[in-house]
Amino acid sequence: MKQSTTWVGKEVVRRDALEKARGLTKYASDMFLDNMLWVAACRSKYPHAVIKRIDVSRALKSPGVVAVFTHRDVPNNRYGVFVKDRPVLCDDRVRYIGDIVAIVAAESKEEAEQAVEEIVVEYEPLPVVSDPLEAMKPDAFPIHEGGNISRSTRITFGNVEEGFKASKAVVENEYRTAPQIHMFLETEAGFSYIDEKGVITVVAGGQSPYRDHHEIVSTLQLPPEKVRVVIPHVGGAFGGKDDVSVQIYLALVTWKTGRPARFVWDRDESTIAGTKRHASIVRMKTGASADGKLLANDVEIIYDTGAYTALGHAVLDVAIENCNGPYKIPNIDIKAWLVYTNNMVASAFRGFGAPQVMFAMEQQVDQLAYELGMDPIEFRLRNALKRGDVMVFGNKLETSVGISQCLEAAQNHPLWRQKETLKSEKSLPWIRRGVGVAAAIKGFTLGALPDRGSVAVELRRDGGLTVKGSFTEIGQGVVQAVAQLAADLFKIDIEKVEVVFADTGKTPDTSVTSASRQLFLAGNALKKAAENLLNLIREVLTTRYGQKVIEARFENGYVVGPGFSHSFEEVAQMLEEHGLSREVVGVYDVPRVEPIPGSLEIPHLFYMFGATLALVEVNILTGTVTVPKLVSIADVGKVVNPQTLTGQLEGAAAQGLGFALLEEPIIDKGILKTTNLSTYLIPSIKDVNEIEVIPVESFEDEGPFGAKGIGEIGIISVAPAIANAIYHAVRVRPKSAPMTPEKIYWLVKQAGLTVK
Amino acid sequence: MKSLSYIDVFTPRSLEEALELLDKHRGELAVLAGGTDLIIQLRKAQQKAPNLLNIYMLDELRYIKHDNEIIKIGALTDFATITESPIIQRHAPVLAEAAATIGSVQILNKASIGGNIVNASPAADSLPALYVLNATLTLRSKTGTRKVAIEQFYKGYKKLDLQSGELLTEVSFPAMKQNQIGMFFKHGLRQGDAISVVNGAILLEVLNGYVKDARIALGAVAPTVVRATESEKTLIGQRLSEDVILKAAQACLTSISPIDDVRGSAAYRKEMCVNYLYMTLWQMMRMVNL
Amino acid sequence: MQYSRVEKEFFFRLNGEEVRVRAPPGYTLLEVLRHILHLTGTKDGCSSGDCGACTVLLDGRAVHSCLTLISQVEGREVTTVEAVDEKVADAYARHGAVQCGYCTPGFVVATAYLLSKMHNPSDAEIREWLRGNLCRCTGYVKILKAVESLAGDDG
């Protein structure tokens, strides 16, 4: 049901924007407390080694040092969301160069840094396993007990061999993608202190305060009520702060010393020890009939999780779920492995496993269209999922499916209609132009996993509302979106809505801010809260009037019904007079189905869809690819705030462009060589040209006002669209991302292209 | 990143005082000019950082003069000033072009030409331009002044003909003549700032449609910047044509010895040298033949 | 190896006020601003001059405070985001050019510098002048719009 709205759909300037732009917002890295200790880490010198001995005695005597901690100080030294395979402080072994062996707490930054140099760690180097294909071999040196396969699974529906037999065209390729680094501008950072109630309070950049809280209390074995986690405004996350980073160490230092502490990673530490997007190897054999129907997809997915599993098990599921694209395919066979290596740890990154498989699938589809002599968009439309379809995993799609609308928007776009003209336009003799398209799908919410979120709404004495939730403001604008949703749900002026976020001491558990789920979760929980508040008010009014009040609704800052109208201020007072709390809680359980065998969370009930068009220029003498224009089309359900929506999609497009063309970590036997922003290049303002955003509103019935998640969809189809545009321009298929100048140069040279 | 809380910094008020201090603390002080490279190097180094001689305050080393067909640039002159200077734009446009690509606006405002020269990165963007301009460096010490041609200044990877106690104070070169054209090129891995995979400068003197003199310098393809002498020879005495510029571009391979690093393989660097020379000469050919 | 701390006193003008601060002469201006003066509008994104988040004006010119030692600031004038004309920050906010916001102060200072040099920059000029400021959230589209909205503004 579509509802009329005042604030939802309106372009409202974000409430946090001006303070941030003036430099007044305090991020975790901006806080300096009195009597504060500086924390520095002693990290592994080897990608893989046995620890023979740790001697901290000299470090302890170093000037200004207050404490040095090792694994002996951590009561339960293993953590991890899916597998507890990661030590807080390494004890038996180090498994990658970001591993921390000891931490120092000192009076000053320099004293902490100098004391780290005084820690003696004796290592016995072990073989370094840096290639996931090597790591998978039975005789590979095991990085963990139980070998190097963190998870493997196989999921089949139908019979792919029969599908290939019936196919007119079959294409088979291997694709690779590099481990993209988040490169948020604020590195992992936090501080800690003991508050007036004796609670160890950790304030740090993160995405999930309750999960961070859980990791702290479970590793340090502290009573849950003795720890509080606060996540202030975060200087970027993109999934890279979904796992804990500084939190446990800060809690440890403050717990043991009783003093405030600060732990901020420098850029090199962040690139080495922060998580990454999984490097991938994806092999695909895909078949289609003469009339352009996809018939079979045989897929092998190998994701390099690095030294630890982190969120890898779920990432692998997302890869599996999305590797067939937004298409109906009757026969699939997917084998997937999550593999340990001594490389950097991989975990969540916007898209969560989908961009890698879509880089493969959307090139497969493109190639099939060319082989069958069909227009690439027409081919995609023929196979596009529709509401009511049975998806590849046997699940029926009963929620909104906007992929056809997205593809039609692409088909009608001038960039697509004029692609041959653009291709033949004259320019320098070594420049070639091309236009490419790619589609995207990704489930949002946690799929078949339990997924619940709560928000609290306090009706303030001044008649305003305070919304409290543990969603985190990582830049995406959730605070603004929640305020707009609340203003419409409670029919109140947005200026009267305050939002308190991400504090385990003050806000209920809205669960993790990831999987593009927070707007959907918080919005639906708010809906429940609005119903609960109305119920409460009806009860109060029933008591007050001595007769049953059945009808009551919010209107213009008032609660109105037949014969009454009370301002929010009056209602707040009434609740108090009746000895009732002015705060209600809304709890939302995401509808879900049972996971299919072999999976953790497949299928989702809710999916986002999208498509990207890319215009590229390829310099055949250098291999440099530039992108004069990107068109990002996304099925967003319903636009909540056009400004934040386009901002999310533009940002995702730019990150996708980086993933596609620029961002290449160089890892040499487990050692990362590109540890800063001059060697690991992210897009600058000169690399990102025109980006046009086209939102498609498919209206999701279950979503708040019809809205879906939007955080991730915009990144997924960028790299394959650019790859397909490169093909259109120079007729080579780049199967390895990033498609750096050197890689493209050799491909083009091999293809024998010459200057006209 | 480590803090340099333990070093001392000496800040002289005049060049004389700077040379005095440099003499007194021979070999113990590193010279801090703009600092845009030095500060990172010192903060990332494993070993203890040396004390610094901060010459950043010496405004007497900030100037651009056109003096008797010689252009003189004070060593502390920053790249923003160089790239915006009417003197440089008119008399050494190839340097103005190179200077603009050294880094971001923030870097251009601070990094000095002297610092870029002494820092001696083989990929430094100002160096190929200074090579083709036949720049001369003025080195001063407490006891005297010495001039050295830029090509003689580099003895190997980061090895300089610079004695302890000596300070680079000036860069000078002949103003470009009416019949000279120069172009700079740079291959970076993104459109925004990036360290050069290869860079280079070409300076041609053209008389009646024929190349009278050619100077080509290439960076990031050897331990020091190198002159592409075979390419130069291929051009001299010729009219620019597709055939000639292609041959000249390919001839650079005898002058370079690139290595593999995070920015590219040696093989790719070789190809880029050839292709950038080709693309740049192609554009110069159009300018000449117009 | 233990190195003992060296400290000296420095005078400079910061946002129009005379400042006297004791600091190690090898400290960067960024360290002095954030760690000693706790003036945290200037952000530390890389400490290597690659991201532009720490941009300040030194005698009116945009520089990286992470690549400027406090010793180089003696007697000079430093302007940080806190003292930049608010209309620049306001344009960023109104045009949705702020997401996580950590890069924004650096952009605001760099933009103020651009506008001090050029009243009416073109799209290409804006890109040239802001190429040293990295943003990971916005894709730069709205940043460009924000700066364009300020162009030609003489106020």
TrEMBL record, chain A:
The record places domain Aldehyde oxidase/xanthine dehydrogenase a/b hammerhead at 22-127
What the entry lists under InterPro entries is as follows: Ald_Oxase/Xan_DH_a/b (IPR000674), Ald_Oxase/Xan_DH_a/b_sf (IPR036856), Ald_Oxase/xanthine_DH-like (IPR016208), AldOxase/xan_DH_MoCoBD1 (IPR008274), AldOxase/xan_DH_MoCoBD2 (IPR046867), AldOxase/xan_DH_Mopterin-bd_sf (IPR037165)
Looking up SMART domains in the UniProt record yields: Ald_Xan_dh_C (SM01008)
> What Pfam families has UniProt attached to this entry?
Ald_Xan_dh_C (PF01315), MoCoBD_1 (PF02738), MoCoBD_2 (PF20256)
Tell me the superkingdom of the source.
Answer: Archaea
* N-terminal signal peptide: none
Any one Gene Ontology MF annotation carried by this entry is: iron ion binding
Q: What is this protein called in UniProt?
A: Xanthine dehydrogenase family protein molybdopterin-binding subunit
Organism of origin: Caldiarchaeum subterraneum
Automatic annotation (TrEMBL), chain B:
In alphabetical order, the GO MF annotations are: FAD binding; oxidoreductase activity
The segment(s) forming the FAD-binding PCMH-type domain are 2-178
SUPFAM superfamilies (alphabetical): CO dehydrogenase flavoprotein C-terminal domain-like (SSF55447), FAD-binding/transporter-associated domain-like (SSF56176)
Q: Which SMART domains match?
A: CO_deh_flav_C (SM01092)
Key words, A-Z: FAD, Flavoprotein, Oxidoreductase
Q: Which organism is it from?
A: Caldiarchaeum subterraneum
- Which Pfam families does the record cross-reference, listed alphabetically? CO_deh_flav_C, FAD_binding_5
Q: List the protein's name.
A: FAD-binding PCMH-type domain-containing protein
From TrEMBL, chain C:
Q: Which GO terms fall under molecular function for this chain's record?
A: 2 iron, 2 sulfur cluster binding; metal ion binding; oxidoreductase activity
Record's signal peptide: none
Q: Does the keyword Iron apply?
A: yes
Highest taxon above the source species: Archaea
Looking up InterPro entries in the UniProt record yields: 2Fe-2S-bd, 2Fe-2S-bd_dom_sf, 2Fe-2S_ferredoxin-like_sf, 2Fe-2S_ferredoxin-type, 2Fe2S_fd_BS, Beta-grasp_dom_sf, Diverse_Oxidoreductases
Every copy of the 2Fe-2S ferredoxin-type domain together lies at: 8-84
Keywords, comma-separated and alphabetical: 2Fe-2S, Iron, Iron-sulfur, Metal-binding, Oxidoreductase
Q: Which Pfam families match?
A: Fer2 (PF00111), Fer2_2 (PF01799)
Instruction: Quote the protein name from its UniProt record.
Output: (2Fe-2S)-binding protein
Q: Which organism is it from?
A: Caldiarchaeum subterraneum
